[in-house]
Amino acid sequence: VFCASLVMGQGAALAVPETQTALITKRTATWCTICGGFAWDMMKRLQADYDSSQAVSLNVHHSSGSRLHSNVAEAWIDAFESSFSQPRFYAGTEELGSGNAGTEAAIREHINEQNAVNPVAQSALAVAYEPETRSLRVEARMTFFQDGDAGTYRLGLYLVERTVMEEQANRGANVEHNNVLREVLTDNPFGIVLHQGAFTAGQ
């Protein structure tokens, strides 16, 4: 158990990078044999080939029977394009396949396309952890780099565990899981509302 506090930074202390980062999500489960087979190897290759400025790749355990299940994982996948099994890979919220060669090619194409786009918005974070109180303090700043149409714009902040040792069907009883979605740091699983309506660059 830990506590988290969020501060929205307004000053220039946090430099917001003008980059477009792809979001790649794998729906998976510790009991899923295929998830520990070719889909496992594919995710490891993607995580090795792209750094976090190019692509954020998450392992999301939707099934309540998975030993790494979380409520926020359920909420995420339920909001994505409909699918009823794992493994499944998503670019943004669009399903791209189960992890075969065609899926990998589509994901790599998506990442390269996203990296070449001028970003509409981006954020920067500063995180401090206090071990004695088991608390996180997160300072966040978001900047719009282009003018945009009216809508509701959110900032989501999530706890992602970089390395978890846990069982995985077809891999073993104690293997390394990377980038596991664990918790959301706001009341809503899709983040806090930052802006409603149209916006202008620099806002």
List the SSEs and their pairings.
Blueprint: E1 3-8, E2 22-28, H1 38-49, E3 55-61, H2 71-79, E4 88-91, E5 94-97, H3 101-115, E6 121-130, E7 135-144, E8 152-155, E9 158-168, E10 172-184, E11 192-196
In short:
Helix content is 18%, strand content 40%.
Commentary on this structure:
- By secondary structure, this protein is α+β, with helices and mostly antiparallel strands.
- 18% of the residues lie in helices and 40% in strands.
- Strand 2, helix 1 and strand 3 (55-61) form a beta-alpha-beta unit.
- The longest helix is centred in the middle third of the chain and has 15 residues, at 101-115.
| Strand/helix succession | EEHEHEEHEEEEEE
* Terminal Cα span: 36 Å
Name the beta content range.
35-45%
Largest sheet: 4 strands, mixed
Radius of gyration, in angstroms, nearest whole number = 18 Å
Shape: globular
> Strand order within the widest sheet?
3-2-4-5
> Please, how many helices?
3
Ranges where pLDDT stays below 50 over 5 or more residues in a row are: none
Helix content: 10-25%
Features:
203 residues; 18% helix; alpha+beta
